[in-house]
Amino acid sequence: MTTADADGNWNFDISRNLSDNVYKITVESIDPLGRTSSVDYQLTIDSFTPIPTVMLHDSADSGVKGDMITKINTPLFTGMAEANAKVSIYVDGVLSGEAIAGDDGVWNFQFTTALSDGSHDVTVKVEDIAGNTASSSAYNFQIVTQTQKPTIELVNDTGVDNTDHIINEKNPALTGTAAPYSTVKLYIDGALIAEVRTNKDGRWEYTLKADQGLVDGDHRITASVEDIAGNIAHSDPFLISVDTAISIPIVSLSPDSDSGISDDNLTNIVKPTLHLKDIDPDIISVQVWDAASDTQIGVATQQPDGSWAYTFTSDLTEGLHQVYVKVEDIAGNKANSAVFDFTIDTTVSTPVISLLSKDDTGVTGDNLTNINKPGFAISGVDADAHRVVVQVMHNGVSEEIELSHLNGSWLFTPGNTWADGSYTLTVKVEDKAGNTNYSTPLTVVIDTQIAIDG
């Protein structure tokens, strides 16, 4: 209770502390005549304001939600404060603007000036209508408006050149770089094949699955990346060539080295040349190996006409030789030919021709006979003889007769009777390797007449 002064003014101090609330105060007065009157008064006690909150608005949180990273450099912020409180927004300690919280306590603030890329701290200070103030803790966020252009490369670039992008794998492993923790979409020939994530170092890797095998030929690989801020970038095209096939080479003697009968793999050339077929255009290595010792002999070379050949540099020994060829192409594919057998044969025996004993009339061994169709035996003919020819010279006229091997023997009998006179016979033998040799000439005299004296 209190008493008004002469001017009707009065004061009253509430002796107890009132908690924050809305109170109804009723003042009743009694004048000197005992008359009463009263009035009600509403009093609001507000001694503090809640600590405000601040965060990126969902519409400004590009990329991964809730990571406090955005590509928007004029972001919209939001938060909670006491209803109708004034909100002051500070970025890196500098006042950037103000907002008023709504009746629901929600406030929003849109930056109109672009913030720089990088890390920023946002704090808000509120003042309610009672004059109470409070500040939020710092809210750290990052603005990233640029992202790293993704790269693509092969984990294993097979072949002799590890930078030529030519491989012999249908399911290659790919790798590359982009911004850390980005999402990378991989496309081959325009078709999406995979979606991968980069690690903390910005690296990614992907190996094509079994059902994603590439056909032989050229392929175009591209990558599209979206970083955690939502920025998107595209790689340059990465071109590769898949080559998993290689032809099996074929080895033979070159025509110039195939003496004697063609294609019989017998030759009398001690430094023969090997001819190689089915050598692919992208072959970069052609090695000749000895099959018996499995050691490399030499390296074949491509000839002006595009063919491949190898000529031995040292004389080969008589007898059988076995070789094969190893080839490797630019993609790293390898293949071996079948073993090729060939024989070096440089010798042929000297044949001997003699008159058959049954036709050697008169004195034995004098090569005089009265048989005008005599028979001759040819000995010393090797088993690999290919051609045996008897050359007969008579009166300056030469005739060649090619013989046949009958019943294991070589025999010669003239087709027609010979006139009396001298006949010189020489045997020429040629073996399958093309070696030739001649007998010592044999002179035979046909004498079917006897002189009558007087």
From TrEMBL:
InterPro entries: Big_13, Ig-like_fold. Pfam families: Big_13. Residues 2-46, 50-143, 148-244, 246-346, 347-448 form the Bacterial Ig-like domain. This is Ig domain-containing protein. It comes from Salmonella enterica subsp. enterica serovar Sanjuan. The lineage of its organism: Bacteria, Pseudomonadati, Pseudomonadota, Gammaproteobacteria, Enterobacterales.
